[in-house]
Structures are given as structure tokens and as C-alpha cells.
Specification:
- This protein has 3 helices and no strands.
- It is flat and about 80 Å long.
- It has a domain at 49-101.
- The termini are far apart.
- With 101 residues, it is mainly α.
């Protein structure tokens, strides 16, 4: 029996919609960033002067804390790399058997 014989004649399969996973329906990332940036600027412009100062100070603190976290991460990666080089050197000196005849 063929597969068409198993189906009832009054039941139709719905058409399949092909969706491209690489397409971004709401635009590019740059345009989305520009939209958020314009929204932030409009919001910031409506604030009173004192609130603008407070937001600016808060943004400076957030930026500095992010910078310190990134610098800590870079320092940790460098420390791990130096430790790995030292351990590899010790392995080569003490544990690797001498293969010279």
C-alpha cells in the first residue's frame, strides 16, 4: 500500500513554511542598537538637570566597574598562562625521561 492510501481524502496536510534562520526579522544589530540609543537619548533629554547628573555619575561607576572586571579577567588569563609555562618547564626538566643514548 502506498502512503497516499493511508490518508483520508478529506484531510489535507498544511503547507510547510520555510524560515531562514539567518534572517533577522527586526533589522540588523546596528539598527537595533541605533534605536535603543535614540530611545535612551530621548529619555535622557527629558530628565531634569539634577537627574542627568545622577545618571551620568551612575554610568561612570558602571563603566569603571566593567573596566575593572575586564582587567581582572585579563590578569587572570595572563597568570594562568605564566603558571602553565612554568609547570611545563618543570615537567621538561624533572619528569621527562632523557632519551639521549
Amino acid at each position: 500500500m502506498s502512503p497516499s492510501e493511508y490518508q483520508e481524502p478529506d484531510i489535507k496536510t498544511p503547507p510547510v513554511e520555510v524560515v531562514d534562520p539567518n534572517s533577522d526579522p527586526s533589522g540588523t544589530v546596528v539598527s537595533q542598537f541605533n534605536q535603543y540609543w535614540l530611545q535612551f537619548q530621548r529619555w535622557f533629554d527629558r530628565l531634569p538637570v539634577l537627574a542627568k547628573g545622577a545618571v551620568a555619575i551612575a554610568l561612570v561607576f558602571v563603566a569603571l566597574s566593567l573596566l575593572t572586571k575586564v582587567l581582572h579577567l585579563v590578569a587572570s588569563i595572563i597568570s594562568v598562562g605564566i603558571s602553565a609555562l612554568i609547570l611545563y618547564g618543570l615537567y621538561r626538566i624533572f619528569l621527562k625521561p632523557n632519551l639521549q643514548p
